[in-house]
Please model this.
Amino acid sequence: MTDLVTVFASTFITLIVIMDPPGAVPIFLALTGRLTTAERNGAALRASLVAFGVIAMFALFGQRILDYLHISIAALQGAGGLLLLLVALELLTGKESDSLGDAGVNVALVPLGTPLLAGPGAIVAMMLAVQKAGSVVGEVAVAVALVAAMLVVYAFLRFASTVRRVLRESGTMLATRIAGLLVSAIAVQMIADSVRAFVAAR
Model:
């Protein structure tokens, strides 16, 4: 029983740290700025479900998928970094209103659901957690940890509308620019880690 609690706790904490729900709130507000409260709540649910689905899929079949497509984790990381960098540039220049605003709740799929929430870090963490589980019961503990982590993520995104009402328009615009800076830093870090992994593999 103690081992199961340890597996659950370690997996849950790792996912929360990697996905960083509080840090996702300003980014979520920036990407859903033109949506109504109901649409934003729907986007929060969709983003959480997409992230859950992607992470769960890679937890079950990740290594097989990557091996079949001859894709390394480093390549996945680099691609995610480049995608995030494009989003970051739009947030920093204020062009998200045109390109992302028209997308409606589709921003919940990309880039919010993946690669922001279900990024290479969360994917790899889950793949390793499943490998280390050691038994069916351990794998169940890992699955429960994933569900619990996604519920926490959803709670933060769901109440982002309250944060938006408090910040008002000017505060939200400031949060958007800060979010752009943070996303660009995340993107550069992902690309740097990808390059480092490619060099180390040589």
